[in-house]
């Protein structure tokens, strides 16, 4: 099998159910999800196995779910295909957010991305996830989508924020608060 097909040389690509231009909003949406998946893989690669086994496992599961998101975003409505992303995954992410958030100290101000390399990468994941979500919102205005993808991405960006803080905490690296921020977060109960 050849990796190259030459079928996209004219500026179109195949999606499930037909062909679209490579700059189509659908391609932008699933392409951004694919970009996010690459950054998640990079984050896994820099996380120490012994200190972050639980997080590495969770991130690997998220990579599979992001592939499912990409599949679902590549399905044209006329294709009549079943979606792959399971519903209810946002609730699973909420449980993970609560679990990892319980490890970290309270914050009251915005946090600057960074601290450790792994935390900085997870903040990159957060911002790319937000961009993917914006692309999905745009796509949903034009065409039918799996609504669970949009909900999942919204919750996933919160997950990345939380685990970026957890990584810094486990490494003994303090978060850097944005010094001109008002107090915007409520204390944990």
Structural account:
The chain has a two-stranded antiparallel sheet with strand order 1-2. Strands 3-4 form a two-stranded antiparallel ribbon. The chain has a single domain (21-177), classed as Cobalamin adenosyltransferase-like (Hypothetical Protein Ta1238, Chain: A), CATH 1.20.1200. It has five helices and four strands; from the N terminus they run E-E-H-H-H-E-H-H-E. The longest helix has 26 residues, at 117-142. The radius of gyration is 18 Å and the shape is elongated. 57% of the residues lie in helices and 6% in strands. It has 189 residues and is mainly alpha-helical.
Helical content (DSSP H or I, runs of 4+):
55-70%
Please write the CATH class name: Mainly Alpha
Tell me the distance between the termini: 57 Å
Spell out the CATH superfamily. Cobalamin adenosyltransferase-like
Going by CATH, the architecture would be: Up-down Bundle
Enumerate how many helices there are, as a single number.
5
What topology, given as strand order, has the largest sheet? 1-2
State the total count of DSSP E strands: 4
Sheet having the most strands: 2 strands, antiparallel
Could you please say which CATH topology applies here?
A: Hypothetical Protein Ta1238, Chain: A
Which class of secondary structure composition applies to the elements?
A: mainly alpha
The arrangement of helices and strands along the chain is EEHHHEHHE
**What's the gyration radius in Å?**
18 Å
Pfam families: Cob_adeno_trans
EC number: 2.5.1.17
Keywords: ATP-binding, Cobalamin biosynthesis, Nucleotide-binding, Transferase
Enzyme class: transferase
């Amino acid at each position: 099998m050849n990796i190259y097909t030459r079928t996209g040389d004219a500026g179109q690509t195949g999606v499930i159910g037909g062909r679209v231009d490579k700059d189509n909003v659908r391609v932008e949406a699933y392409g951004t999800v694919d970009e996010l998946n690459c950054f998640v893989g990079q984050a896994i690669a820099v996380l120490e196995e012994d200190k972050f086994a639980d997080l590495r496992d969770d991130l690997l599961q998220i990579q599979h779910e992001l592939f499912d998101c990409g599949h679902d975003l590549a399905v044209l409505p006329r294709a009549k295909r079943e979606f792959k992303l399971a519903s209810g995954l946002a609730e699973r992410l909420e449980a993970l957010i609560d679990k990892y958030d319980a490890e970290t100290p309270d914050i009251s101000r915005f946090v600057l991305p960074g601290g450790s390399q792994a935390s900085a990468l997870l903040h990159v994941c957060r911002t790319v996830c937000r961009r993917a979500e914006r692309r999905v919102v745009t796509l949903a205005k034009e065409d039918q989508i799996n609504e669970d993808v949009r909900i999942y991405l919204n919750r996933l960006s919160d997950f990345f924020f939380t685990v970026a803080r957890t990584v810094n905490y486990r490494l003994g690296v303090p978060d850097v608060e944005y010094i001109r921020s008002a107090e915007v977060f409520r204390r944990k109960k």
